[in-house]
Q: What sequence folds into this?
């Protein structure tokens, strides 16, 4: 019988593993966060969002800037390398810097552990064993290991705040605390705006309107509004006072970037771009004339560069169109949440709002898949239908992050760790209860899809280089992104079906 001690022991064991990963590959994000430590420690407040000393300018909201400021002073007081706090030491790295920054990720991840423990305790006794398994699954996610502890970010800390907020949303008496935590989260990282519509509708229906009808509860509305506005003023107040909000928003929302990230996030637009590349290749062979096909391909989304995405055959996409598509599909999800504002529907709506933003959003990063995997993990062991819907997402989402670790030294880690995690995930069948009506999903189709990653990874890692050498260097990324996108898209359709047919 799973117990909370299993979760604690898992966290301790994983901490030792993460310490062993300290010497691993570090992405530019490592220098980004080191530079932010230096900026917030050494420059005056008015220069935090205006400094161009480094190309890695501060582009997270103010609470994260204050977190970096706090970490910088902890590093100084504990006697770590002071040179890392000099903003003019560009691309600076030392053993002391590595130890401090990687240790800070492990320590801040305790927020996620606390939130998962709170989630387990909030469940009825009969559901706690499954909740513990789900918590362990989330904490050990290869996506978190790859992005935070090798590539380098602080997602464990941030998603800990989100999970904690979701747990507090289960009870009416803690709804205001849930709202406050989520408002604070938005001031740490603005990507969580993806799921803000679900919070808005849920809090409106459960906190601002009467439980038995739609009568406005003015006292609650005022408390909620004052809490959220107060938190945002606390975060952005200094920059409002200094008149720097246009500069801050320009940093937070760089819409000048193209539709697809340098490495396509496996979403709908990856499939769209893939279809355009296939059409560009084959149509001229069937007699269709494409006057600018060569130039468009060179400047298009298959070169691995961050720039405007230009399609050769299919219509080009604008930021406004991506926003309208996302808003339309999110609205359908939110309608059900408004009329059936249960906690489980709320978690489902948070998951789907993040998912739809990921699928149809503008310039989505591949790392944003965490905003889908993490909350969906709370539902994954409700019954086998949810588990079956979760598996393709979890496998495709984690494997889609493999290109972030492109050095040979990390290959055994990402393959072996992810393989072990997937094997454990496939064993969860016995833990998840069988629904009364098994009317959903084809297990064998899901397993066949997940198995398809094996030959694809072999091709990308070995066969492509043998066949093409240094040519078509972006083809393996394109194939992996397009294939992962199909699984993520299918899994989203699966959860949408469950969300609208489940009577909860």
A:
């Amino acid at each position: 019988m799973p117990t909370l001690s299993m979760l604690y022991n898992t966290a301790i064991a994983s901490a030792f593993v993460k310490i062993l990963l300290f010497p691993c590959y570090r992405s530019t994000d490592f220098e980004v966060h080191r530079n932010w430590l230096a900026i917030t420690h050494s420059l005056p407040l008015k220069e935090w969002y205006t400094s161009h000393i480094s190309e890695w300018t501060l582009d997270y909201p103010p609470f994260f800037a204050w977190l970096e400021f706090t970490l910088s002073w902890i590093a100084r007081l504990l006697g770590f390398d002071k040179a890392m706090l000099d903003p003019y030491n560009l691309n600076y790295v030392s053993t002391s810097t590595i130890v401090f920054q990687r240790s800070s990720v492990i320590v801040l991840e305790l927020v996620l552990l606390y939130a998962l423990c709170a989630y387990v305790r909030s469940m009825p006794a009969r559901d706690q064993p499954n909740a513990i398994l789900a918590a362990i699954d989330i904490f050990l996610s290869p996506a978190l290991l790859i992005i935070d502890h090798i590539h380098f970010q602080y997602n464990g800390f941030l998603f800990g705040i989100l999970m904690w907020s979701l747990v507090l949303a289960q009870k009416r008496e803690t709804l205001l605390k849930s709202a406050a935590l989520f408002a604070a989260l938005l001031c740490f990282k603005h990507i969580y705006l993806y799921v803000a519509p679900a919070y808005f509708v849920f809090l409106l229906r459960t906190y601002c309107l009467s439980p038995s009808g739609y009568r406005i509860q003015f006292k609650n509305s005022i408390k909620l509004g004052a809490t959220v506005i107060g938190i945002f003023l606390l975060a952005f107040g200094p920059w409002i006072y200094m008149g720097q909000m246009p500069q801050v928003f320009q940093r937070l929302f760089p819409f000048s970037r193209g539709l697809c990230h340098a490495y396509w996030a496996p979403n709908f637009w990856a499939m769209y771009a893939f279809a355009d590349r296939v059409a560009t290749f084959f149509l001229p062979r069937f007699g269709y004339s494409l006057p600018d096909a060569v130039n468009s391909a060179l400047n298009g989304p298959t070169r691995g560069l961050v720039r405007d995405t230009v399609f050769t055959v299919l219509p080009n996409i604008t930021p406004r169109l991506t926003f309208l598509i996302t808003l339309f599909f999110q609205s359908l999800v939110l309608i059900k949440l408004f009329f059936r504002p249960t906690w489980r529907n709320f978690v489902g709506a948070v998951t789907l709002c993040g998912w739809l933003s990921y699928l149809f959003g503008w310039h989505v990063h591949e790392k944003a898949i965490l905003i889908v995997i993490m909350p969906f993990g709370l539902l994954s062991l409700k019954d086998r239908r949810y588990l079956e819907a979760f598996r393709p997402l979890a496998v495709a989402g984690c494997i889609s992050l493999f290109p972030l670790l492109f050095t040979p030294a990390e290959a055994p880690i990402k393959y072996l760790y992810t393989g072990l995690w997937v094997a454990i995930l496939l064993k969860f069948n016995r833990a998840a209860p069988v629904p009364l009506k098994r009317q959903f999903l084809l297990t064998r189709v899901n397993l066949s899809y997940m198995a398809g990653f094996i030959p694809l990874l072999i091709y990308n890692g070995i066969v492509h280089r043998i066949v093409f050498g240094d040519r078509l260097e972006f083809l393996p990324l394109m194939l992996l992104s397009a294939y992962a996108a199909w699984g993520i898209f299918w899994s989203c359709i699966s959860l949408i079906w469950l969300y609208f047919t489940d009577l909860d």
Summary: Confidence is low (pLDDT under 50) at residues 293-307, 436-441.
